[in-house]
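Hey team,

Filing this mostly as a record. A colleague (T.K.) asked me to run one chain through the structure pipeline before their review meeting, and I want the input and output archived in the tracker in case anyone asks later how it was produced. No errors, nothing strange. Just documentation.

Input sequence:
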Amino acid sequence: MTFKRASGVLLHPTSLPGPYGIGDIGPAAFEWVNFLASAGCSIWQVLPLGPTGYGDSPYQCFSAFAGNPYLVSPVSLLAEKLLDPADLAEIPTFSAEKVDYGTVIPYKLELLNRAYQHFKKSRSKKLHQAFADFQEAEASWLPDFVLFMALKEHFGGGPWVDWPEPYRQRQPQALAEFGQEHAVAVERQAFRQFVFFRQWGRLREYAHQKGIVIVGDAPIFVAHDSADVWAHPELFFMNADGKPSVVAGVPPDYFSATGQLWGNPLYNWEVHAKDGYAWWLSRFKGVLALVDLVRLDHFRGFAAYWQIPGEAETAIDGAWVPGPGKAFLKEMKAGLGDFTTPLHTGLPIIAEDLGVITADVEDMRVSYDLPGMKIMVFAFDDDASNVFLPHNYTCDYVVYTGTHDNDTVLGWYQRVPDKERDFARRYLARDGRDISWDLIRTAWGSVAVWAIAPLQDLLSLDNAARMNYPGSLGGNWTWRMPSEATNEFLRSRLYETNLLYGRLSEKLKAVLAEKPAEEK
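Output structure:
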């Protein structure tokens, strides 16, 4: 195992506090990094950072390579003179508790448009050169993406499959003429990416200075309404009309009699294999330009995936189809090599190996030394043989109290039957009055190499703070942390837990070693 024992917190940037309706990567993000470092944590885990589309989900993005412009910080734009104080003089009254995307999105886009106008008037040769350098460095994906977004804007936000045929089928002359006629709209999209990558790069560098490793997230599938599918339909199973012939999902199970119909187009793995999975390799390199490690979502889908007819209304009539298996990981290993951070050396991947895991999935994970995942709120509905109970772990796992798709710990405890609560209390040897921290301490004390909790669990919040209900439409991805959440009480409690269970960050250990005894 090439990972070092450590701990961290799961918090998406949209959940950070601030006056602009949505968390961003400005001052509050830097303060968050300071909190993690002072509490002895080494890991900040985020959700996918791409531009969100349908349902505001970070797992349904317009691109697997682009950044989310709604995360751009107005304060940082002001500092770079890309906004004037007058541009921020009138801020709508936004909720501090929830993101209202319907009001936030037009407000943030208007600020970004003003920033673009300031940029065009700027005489800063350094800034303009940086923009040119950015476009050159991201030339493998940026031109397709900005043209896609400009077209989407032009056609009122509609999906590309409904565009006029010349644009839907990417006829070269039609695209060239559109690019010329709408050059400002295209460049404006590129500018939004420029400022996102510029701000995120500074935040990531600061996190590294503080000893914080950032864990990102890569959904196995991409959205149908994305620049990726529009620009590379040959990589997916598609009909001539641009609609998927088969789509992704999961079969019926205990939780759903009809399964889950995700609707994402499925990869034509034979086509990917012919060029050594080049698109996937580019995708990983793009994600790893933003984060240090990647949680690879639905890892079992690389062994076998549930294939559903494109016209199906439920996931019932699907079939298991073999995935690319070890051949895929072999090419990723060859193309990426070993990454090194203060916490690990090797392939920078955490395998999201949840659900019904077959022997071939486990063989893939173990063969490439990838840590899997354990979820504490799944541990108490059975008996001592439950694989999510800490005494059944091995060190090659990352343990979570829960994830963005689960109940919070308190929400789980309030929801489950008495039998499950009783087993949890007996196992933990606690009365359940502080159940969130009972599970946090148990996770931190386990042999799992990394232990991570959503901030909601550190704050002992119930399901009103839950991030996502899979399969439900609306109301997800909106939770925001209170501005006073990262107080001294929480910091000292988390620090003490890291200290007691051997997860204190090496960076903080070094800082403490340099201080006189009376300052420690």
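Quick notes for T.K.: The longest helix spans residues 183-209. The chain has a mean pLDDT of 96.
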